[in-house]
Amino acid sequence: MILVPVKNLETAKQRLSPLLSPGERFALAQAMLQDVLAALDASRYRGYVALVSGDARARQFAQQYGFGSINDPDDPGETGAIEMATRASMERGAEFTLILPADIPLITAAEVDEIFAAAPPQGTVLAPSASGRGTNAVLQRPPGLFPLRFGNDSFLPHLAAARATGNPVAVLRLAGIGVDIDEPADLADLLATPGDTRAQGLLDEWSISERLAAMRLAEERAS
């Protein structure tokens, strides 16, 4: 199954608060999720998608695309949600899990298909964040091949754990999947990358480039 964990959209992306209002963060979180779902909808593997969330609006988006969902009423964080969803996938007889976050708006259907093309009969595919520190996609076949622990520095621990299983490991550096949005600087990377996503459209509408420039100037004056 392709699992997309989603936190409460209304409180998402708190680290963007120096630049975005609560309403803007809410709108951006929704836009990024829709960008991810649209890319998955265009993939040949769309029939495997399940949203992992207790957020009613997020689950509604999944329903609009015809995707399944796994309820996550306790909202234990990304790692806890994925542990729960992986167990649910195994109970349903899934042969694999592919974990994709909801904040990678530049993801493309071609990249999703590339992950599956690289997947060994038994083993792992990892796609790191652009910084090389985080893990922005992980495919395990079978599910639960090793424990997943997400965070800012999860890629190297995941790589070591995958190799420790003794199964093949493929590492893919994917330009779209590599761009995740957590900090204000990430918004600059998103704007600088060619694309026509919902998230990029919002940032243009909000003149985020000008806000970023003003924030950098203020930081320089304060230093």
Describe the structure in your own words.
The protein is α/β, with parallel strands linked by helices and 223 residues long. It has one domain: Spore Coat Polysaccharide Biosynthesis Protein SpsA, Chain A. Strands 3-2-1-4-6-5-7 form a seven-stranded mixed β-sheet, with helices on both faces. A hairpin with a 6-residue loop joins β5 and β6. α1 runs antiparallel to α7. The longest helix is centred in the first third of the chain and has 20 residues. The protein is globular. The N and C termini lie far apart (48 Å). The mean pLDDT is 94.
Largest sheet properties: 7 strands, mixed
CATH superfamily: Spore Coat Polysaccharide Biosynthesis Protein SpsA, Chain A
Based on Cα principal axes, name the global outline: globular
Query: How far apart lie the N and C ends?
Result: 48 Å
Rg estimate, integer Å? 17 Å
Number of helices: 8
- What oligomeric state is this? single chain
Low-confidence stretches: none
Helix content: 40-55%
CATH topology: Spore Coat Polysaccharide Biosynthesis Protein SpsA, Chain A
Q: Quickly name the level 1 CATH class.
A: Alpha Beta
- Number of domains as seen in the coordinates: 1
Q: Judging by the overall fold, what is the CATH architecture? A: Alpha-Beta Complex
SSE arrangement, N to C: EHEHEHEHEEHEHHH
- By helix and strand content, what is the structural category? alpha/beta
**How much strand content do the residues show?**
5-15%
Strand order of the largest sheet: 3-2-1-4-6-5-7
